[in-house]
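User: Fold this; tokens only.

Assistant: Input:
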Amino acid sequence: MHTIDISDVDRDGWLHLRSRGIGGSDAAGILGLSLWESPMSIWAAKTGRSEPKVLTFAMDMGNRLEPIVAELAQDELGREVTERQVMCIDDEHDYLLGNVDRWLDPDAILEIKTAGVRQIAAWEAGVPPYYEAQVRHYLMVTGRELGIVAVLLGGQELRTYEIARDPMYEDWMREAEIEFWEQHVVTDVPPPPDSAEATKKALARMYHGKKDTKVYATPEIESLLLLRDEKAKYLATIEADIIGIDNAVRAFMCDNEILLGGPAAEVLVTWKSQIRRTVDTKALKEDQPELAAKYMRESTSRTFLVK
């Protein structure tokens, strides 16, 4: 491993450096473990086909809390935590990068996370797979033997987890990342599309549509559409069965709002009335056309419709 100093690099510069290689936060997406990314979405970002992510409030808070969590982790672990503003680069493949949060000399690294109340459950069984992939990528690049994850849960509880190097995992990861970069990024050939929501969003961002243009389906695409039709019919049958079951439960509950079951009288189903208030846009346009026009918002999207 060798490093480059990034102490004077701003966020835009850091994003530019990351675009030149595969970082820890890319690993889970390439491996199919991410909730937010996919090989297609990462490829679109690395090849300049999509804009860098906007810094959200949650991301900003994570950045602001990082030094505080690092200090808490130092107290918890009883080991000195140090910060080094460097980009780590793999000696064999210079596109394998690592931006480690903190260092625990001589043999460990510290990854810092914050999680809101709604994310606490994801940490009950240990480090979520998508964050585990990130840490293992850093271990692979740095050669360190141990990764420690310190997470602040709900702003009130600190937990630490240890991740030891796993040669088999690293071999799998390294092979996947090298293949992704050399067969897709370098060649500018997109990876095969998958079922991830991130892939759907990436395709929508890349291809905006040209009015009234047409393309003829290949035999492979026609076969896919036939397969889709079969699966859609099967799905419709399943959905009809589920609706029938739901209606049977509704009929049993009658006017009752809560259905209980089991020795502990657990809540199985709720069926409660809700009031929903909406603006009558048609009436608003008729009665107050200027006001309606003032607050009208226009957006463009592509509708995918299978005939």
